[in-house]
Amino acid sequence: MEVVIAPAGDLARLAAASIEALLTEHPRSVLGLATGSSPLKVYDELARRHKDGLSFAHARAFMLDEYVGLPADHPERYRNVIEREIASRVDFAPGAVQGPDGNAEDLERACADYEAAIAATGGVDLQLLGIGTDGHIAFNEPGSSLASRTRIKTLTRQTREDNARFFGGAVGDVPRHCLTQGLATIMSAKHLVLLATGRAKAEAVHQLVEGPISAMWPATIMQMHPHATVLVDDAAASRLQLADYYRQTYAEKPDWQGL
Ligand code: F6R
């Protein structure tokens, strides 16, 4: 696992540069898209690079998760968030961006179909991730099976409180259920790139990087991934025991290596 500690703008540029390098070498790559606030600067940077010629025309993308039961036109439905924040700002082909269907009649079937759709592409090449203050990735809340696949989950009170800011501050308006890629689904991606900023994420980041692997902090499963990159600002890095070592390692990293 590589840990890079830098200002938020630099982190977004690093993540976007990694995606640009991937798409330039392999235009048919499969991207994994996260919602929430963590990837927004990355999406701004990708939209800027698209204006400079970066094309998504042959790429495909899969979302991490979706609320269950939000009306199709709800602005916080993740399908609409992804459309607004990135898909509509670049040149993905129609239908190239997919997400789990949180309004399906048969939710179990929708989850199985989603797993099959990801597998049919050969899998995600680069997965963007954020992390919840309770250590969730996608919506794999504490207690999630480390071997989980796409399924329905119940959001914790903590996550619903954290996300109330997207619903005018009303916790009661945040859905209670979601469909989410499982931890094993996420672990199948070839490269994981997680972004975290702000002091509220410091404990979760400490556990992710330095804690014991445990379903209590689901993101810790990333320690088992052969290519995981954790991009954090100073505040999110403030509880890392080996912060100085991570800083030194990144400063001395050869230029050719990339993320
Ligand atoms: C969103 C997702 C979540 C968020 C996490 C952090 O698709 O999968 O795991 O990444 O809740 O959210 P923010 O970035 O808003 O702090």
UniProtKB/TrEMBL annotation:
<feature type="active site" description="For ring-opening step">
    <location>
        <position position="134"/>
    </location>
</feature>
<comment type="function">
    <text>Catalyzes the reversible isomerization-deamination of glucosamine 6-phosphate (GlcN6P) to form fructose 6-phosphate (Fru6P) and ammonium ion.</text>
</comment>
<feature type="site" description="Part of the allosteric site">
    <location>
        <position position="144"/>
    </location>
</feature>
<dbReference type="Pfam" id="PF01182">
    <property type="entry name" value="Glucosamine_iso"/>
</dbReference>
<feature type="site" description="Part of the allosteric site">
    <location>
        <position position="151"/>
    </location>
</feature>
<feature type="domain" description="Glucosamine/galactosamine-6-phosphate isomerase">
    <location>
        <begin position="10"/>
        <end position="224"/>
    </location>
</feature>
<feature type="active site" description="For ring-opening step">
    <location>
        <position position="141"/>
    </location>
</feature>
<protein>
    <recommendedName>
        <fullName>Glucosamine-6-phosphate deaminase</fullName>
        <ecNumber>3.5.99.6</ecNumber>
    </recommendedName>
</protein>
<feature type="site" description="Part of the allosteric site">
    <location>
        <position position="154"/>
    </location>
</feature>
<dbReference type="InterPro" id="IPR018321">
    <property type="entry name" value="Glucosamine6P_isomerase_CS"/>
</dbReference>
<feature type="site" description="Part of the allosteric site">
    <location>
        <position position="153"/>
    </location>
</feature>
<dbReference type="GO" id="GO:0004342">
    <property type="term" value="F:glucosamine-6-phosphate deaminase activity"/>
</dbReference>
<comment type="pathway">
    <text>Amino-sugar metabolism; N-acetylneuraminate degradation; D-fructose 6-phosphate from N-acetylneuraminate: step 5/5.</text>
</comment>
<dbReference type="InterPro" id="IPR006148">
    <property type="entry name" value="Glc/Gal-6P_isomerase"/>
</dbReference>
<dbReference type="InterPro" id="IPR004547">
    <property type="entry name" value="Glucosamine6P_isomerase"/>
</dbReference>
<comment type="similarity">
    <text>Belongs to the glucosamine/galactosamine-6-phosphate isomerase family. NagB subfamily.</text>
</comment>
<keyword id="KW-0119">Carbohydrate metabolism</keyword>
<keyword id="KW-0378">Hydrolase</keyword>
<dbReference type="InterPro" id="IPR037171">
    <property type="entry name" value="NagB/RpiA_transferase-like"/>
</dbReference>
<feature type="active site" description="Proton acceptor; for ring-opening step">
    <location>
        <position position="136"/>
    </location>
</feature>
<feature type="active site" description="Proton acceptor; for enolization step">
    <location>
        <position position="65"/>
    </location>
</feature>
<keyword id="KW-0021">Allosteric enzyme</keyword>
